Write the structure tokens for this entry.
Amino acid sequence: MRRLSVLILTVVGLLFPLVACSATATLPAPTVTVTETVTAPASGARTPTAPPTVARESPSSGLPTIPVSDLPPEGQLTLDLIAAGGPFPYSQDDQTFQNREGLLPSRPYGFYREYTVETPGSPDRGARRLVAGSDGVVFYTDDHYNSFSEVIE
């Protein structure tokens, strides 16, 4: 009788993993449903469809960065003029930027050059500028040197 019990336990022990495997293999895969809840602001203002660009700090200058694609179209045109060596629309363009505000990394006199980024509708040069370093680094300001962002690709 004891032998029969051992035999039955052995057979059950061998068959149990096979039964367990076949049982789990036939279970349907779980279904995951993702829903997104969008709420309108109480004021009824329109919500933006794309998140704003997150300003990252440049490791080389410590300033926020701005991708070329986020520059105003006139800034992108000014970058093209800088790459081509001009001609520039204003006599002040391609002149030494002295960094009097001390917001850009300290470099020797003559390292930085400034360029106008036209402001549509402005009666004068406006407040927007690109400042380019002789090593190829470029900074953008839209508030006439009160703040800068490093331009990145």
Summary: Confidence is low (pLDDT under 50) at residues 1-41, 43-52. The first strand starts at residue 65 and ends at 67.
